[in-house]
Structure formats: C-alpha cells, structure tokens
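Today's session is about reading a structure prediction critically. Students often jump straight to the picture, but the first step is always the sequence itself: look for stretches that repeat, for charged clusters, for runs of hydrophobic residues. Only then move on to the predicted structure, which in these notes is written as discrete structure tokens rather than atom positions. Here is the chain we will use throughout the hour.
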Amino acid sequence: MSYKLLFVTILSIVGHVNLNARRVVVGNEASVSYSVLVLDSNQNSPLQLARVSLRRGKNLIIGKVTDQSGRAVFTDVQSGGYTLVVRLVGYDDVTDSVYIDALHNSITILLSEVKHEELTVGADLDELKITSVDLKTGNQTFEAEGYHASPNQKMVTLLQQNVLGAVKAPTGEVHIRGQHAEYSYYVDGIQIPPGVFGGFNEVVDDQVIVSASFLTGGLPAEYGGQSAAAVVLQNKVPTGHLHLNFETYAGSFLGRDNTSQNNSLLSASPLKPINMNGQAISISDHIANFGFFIAGDRAETDRRIDPPLPIIDHNHGFDYFGFAKLDYLIGENDYITSNIDWSKTITQIPFNALVDGNSDDNQQSHNSYQTLSFFHTISRATDAESDLFVGASLREGSLLFSPGSVDVHSVYFLSDSTKGFILNEDRSYTTAALYSKLNIRFSHQLLFCSGINISNSTGNGHFVATDTMGNIGQDIKTNFSGTDFGAFAQCEYHPAEWTKFDFGFRYDQQIAPNRPIERAISPRLRWNIYFDEATTMYLSYGKYFITPNIEEIRSITSLVSSNTIPTVAERDGAFEIGFLHSFDFGLRGKVDFFKKISLPGVDDQTIGATSIETEVNIASVKTTGIEAGLSYSLIGVPINAYLNTSIVHAYGSGAITGGFLPIQSAGDVTDLDHDERISLSSAINYIPQDWFFNLSFSYGSGLTNGNSDVKYGSSLFDLNQAAHTTPAWIINFSAGHTFTLSGGTTIAPSFYINNIFNHNHLLKGAFFSGASWEEPRNIVFMLTVHV
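Below is the predicted structure for this chain, in token form.
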C-alpha cells in the first residue's frame, strides 16, 4: 500500500467517524469520569492492583487496576448502566450493577478476604487472563495469575511469549520488533536501566510480578531510552494476613552430553539426562499501614547458556535471586514503596573446540537495583485530579570473566601481533538516579503531565592479559563517570467524544567518556479515533533518542585497534497505525503497521577473541512490520487463549563504526542478526477449579545463520531465507492441581514438558556474536506449598 493511498483512506475513515460521532454516546449524556475506591473490609486500608472492570453482560467495556491509593479512575465512560466487577487474588469478588452519569461518578467497594475453608484456585466465575489488548491504548496487558511457565524459564520467556513482535533470542535476550534488546523495565514509576556489561542473569524475576503492561509503539514522551518497548511492571504487593510460600523443582534435559567423547565435538554422543533443580521461598504480611513481601530462590543446571553446538558440555551454572517489596501508607494522600532486588549468576561458558579451540572459561555476574517511590495525591476532585511522584534508584552490576589455562591464546595487541594472550576481565558499575512526575487534570478534556530524570553512572574495569607462559602482558585499570539527563512535557486533549490527541516532547542529554556531549529534542504525537466503545484506531509519530551505555572501553580497544571513532546515540523516526476491536463473545484483537528509520542504528559486537561486547553503529537501519494479536477470555468460561503474530524486516546498510573498532561495511542491504521475519506465539489455558492445563506454541522463521554470501531483498516480504536459520516450531505443555488441606494450607504439584518434539535446532548462527542452539526437550516437576 502506498503512503498516499494510506493517507486518503485515513481521511475517509475520519470523515465517516466525524459525521457519525454521536453513535458512541450510549446514555443521554456525553462521557464522564468514574472513580472506584477499593478498600480492605477489615483494615479499611486501600488495596492496590485490584482489577476493576465495567461490563455490559459478559462483554468487557473497559478495565483498570487500582493504584497505590486503591483507586481506579476511568476518564472516558459513556453514561449508562454497567456491571461493575472488582477482583483481587485472596479476596472475594464483588459484582454490582451501577448507573454512571455526571451525578453518579464514584463508588467505594469493600473487599473481604477469602476464608481458609473457602479457598479455591481458578473459580469458574472468574475471568481468567494471561495477556490481552487494552482497547483505549493498544497496549498489551499481562496478569501472572494465569501464567504457568516452567520454573526454569526466565523473564525473557515471558516477554517472548506475550508481546507482539517479540522473538526468542540466545540466552538472556529477546528481540522486539526486529530490534536488539531495545526495551526498558519500569517499576513503580522508575526506569531500570540496562546493564552496562551484559551478563546472563536478569535484573527482573517473573516470579515476583503480579501484572505488566507492554507498550510497543507510539510511546508517550515520558518514556525515554530504549524504545522498542516499555515494560511497565507491578511487583507483588502484600495484602491481608501472613502468607508463606515454598517451591521446589527438579528436572532433566534429555540432551546429548560430550563428557565421554574426549572433546571430539562432532562425533556422535549418546542421549543423557542433564539435571536441573531449584528452590524458592516467599513470605508476606500486612500490619496496619505497613506491608512487606520478601522472596528468594536458587537454581542449578547443567545447561545454563544456549551453546554453540547441540551438544551439552561445559555449561554448569547457578542462579541466585533475592527480592523485597516494602509498602507504607503515610496518610490518605501519601504513600511510599520500595523495591530491593539482587541476582547473581555463576556459570561455565560452553565452546566450540573446532572453531575456538578448547577452553575453560568461567563467568560470574551480578545485577541489582533498589527503588524508593513517593506518591502524593494533590486532588481527587472529579475531572480535576492531580498527583505528584518522586523517586530514586540505585542500579549496580559487575562482571568477572576468567579464561582457563587451556584456552587458545588468541588475543593480539598492536604492539606485538605475533604473541597471543588470554584476557581476564573484572568490571563493575553503579548508576544512581532521581525521577519526578507531575500530573494535573484541568478538565475532563485536558490532562497535562511533566517530569525530569537525572542519573549518574560510575564504574571501573580491570583487564589483565596473560601469555602462554603465564606472564602478564597488559594490566589495564580504568575508571569512568557519566551523566544522563531527561525532561518531558506531554498533554492529553479530548476535544470530542470520538477523538483524543496525545502530544508532547522530551529533551535528552548524555555526557560520557571519550565522546562528545550528545543531546536531542524528541517530539511525540498520537491520535486516537473512537468508532464506538468496542473499536479504536490510532496513528502515531515520534522521534526517539537512544544513548549508548556509559563505560570506558577506549583504554582496552586502543590496544587492538587504532580507530578513534566512538559509538554515538541512535536517532529514530517512527510511524505507526493500529486498529483495535472487541467482540461480544470475549475475543479482542489488534492489528498494526509500523515503520522506523534509524540514522544511525546501534548493535552489539564482540571485541576480537575476548568476552567484551560493545555497542557499534550501523549507518542506516530500517525496520518495517505488521503485527496482529488476538486474546480470548470470558467470565464463567475457564478457558483463555491468545495468539500473537508478526512479520518484521530489520535491515542495515552502510558503514559499521564505533566502539573504537576497525570500520566495516554492512553493504547495501543486510538483514540484522536480530531480524526474524515471521514470528508467532500462542497459548491455550484450561483452568477449572483447582486445576490448570496449558499448551503453548511458538514459531520462528529463523534468525541469521551467518551466511553473508546472499543477495538481500529489502521489502517486508523478502524473506531472504538463505541468510536465516531453518524455521522451527516449539510446543510446551504443563498441568497442575491444587489440594486444600485443613487450615487453608494448599499443596500444588505440577509438571512441565518443554519442547515436546525435541526440535533442537540452530537458533542463531555466528554473526556479530557466536552461534546458539535451541534447548532440547526437558521435563520438570514442581511442588508448591502455600500457608
């Protein structure tokens, strides 16, 4: 479709909507704001993250979750009669018939805790969801209550399965919309910056998440940095009385092991069980205005990293994770919350002896963050709400890489290109940040918000090169410091029932070592068109400014390259059009088209034969895609399902520069190493009372296979399959049952079969980084005890 034809079509649709705008008015009046306050009936304290929905019959009209003050405010509700449903895990559901108009614009709901003898899991009257589409914004929403992934899966699995345009990538990564891990987590209004040095452990654990919203296009101005997606998380919030939870699991990969093959990695090797196990514990309580949730877990596996060969060898690893959520209600208008998160991974690094020689590399990395968020309600008056948020965070990380004495000494320096070395790496960093945001609603039609963020990153690195005799060739110590600053202002304007505009801008600036100060102003614009309560179309355009990591890599790269060009920020222009619709029988859908041009783009590249990765620039990166998603859930039906599918083409052209590395060329058109053309993920959940059964599917047309001898096409439907790995289906199954004992204690055994048909395929070939293979079939048994 040409852009002229698309423009004419949009104008025609808008004209039709404008002529028929009165159709969206259901009652006798225009839309109004409606406020729902949810309280604990025993303590009369506000309940956060309660799901509030307005319905007609079984059809969902609009839904929200309550904020820190226990409120859910609906700003665009058509006057008329609705069924109000309020639900929170651990409390009895409340269903009530309400009439909403200018005189009836608020209600208070008291929730009572479920009595122990009444405790059930997956009650038939509940609406069960995993992921669905918000009809007003197009954002995908996720609820962990119906999520049953294998306990050995990571947070990236959740993203890959539940986000439109997401692609499974090698260990610790997920690519969204053809972009290389360009997404950010947000917790309690605070952005969690990405790790500076990489590593295989994650800063977020899916076991402590209650819900999440995935924003993948038309991001408001408040979201800066990584722009492929904003993942807005709601971590578990303590409610009710004391809860104690314990989990343990054990499983096995039915893979091929090479320990008996004397490192002949291409020889046939027998199937052999490869073990994994883990334990987790959590405790929570709510005492007056103070609540806490504390969790910890450990995991051990003989296959920690996606290896460069299908054989599982030299891949033993441990993961440790700790988390605490603390809440305190200062008063009716003031609330404070804190997150404390820590993770550590100790692992061997698998290798391909035929390519890299024998090795005994070991890596230890840690990631952590702490947040403190303060929320103040300035006004709760209907259509004049205003509030203030102020937050602070610390983000720490470290990476310790130790090559083995048997490694091939393949690091060469400019000073002596004939003598090889191995390189030890010891790096750490800390990022401290402050955030603020002010929301002011001047009227039902006009909302304004603004805010700032500033962060400072400091760190150090120690690199030691050792030759074959054990002599030290280079001993490099570095220190670095840099600052990021951002400010934004945005406005939501709703001039008529059938339309709404969101527009704003943000200013970003970065000061980093060895490169000039970079800054940009990024405008954002979004136009929503409401055909009726069940149908929305939107258009958006925005500029995005993505700065590289703040680190001091020049001191080490100068020893292997004479280049002086640093990596600079990615500068994007992005356009999107989307269409949303909800059917009366519980089905919701979204389809969108997007295009993004990056001048330059950013990718990651490994420095020589080391473990050091650095960001580099590609002169031009163009990404185009079409996405479609469906979700199904209905009250009274213990089945939910979703289907996410996309076709995306991300390709680069021109010079590859930055990282102080030698200049290369991407050619006229080259598919990027994070480009997978066709992706699909789907799941069906059957959750009758006290049971769950889950069947999930994923399909990928393949990431790069490392073959550069290909004539690439640049259109969206040029699959360029010769440059991509073989397409693959992965199917998983899980099931479990909950037994309720006296006193309300529950015991829940469950089992998981991942990659049922053992499709152990090449996930990605060697390109900017090494090859990786899909994990083979594995079976896991888990036991959960809840007190």
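Discussion point for the tutorial: The two ends are 58 Å apart (CA to CA).
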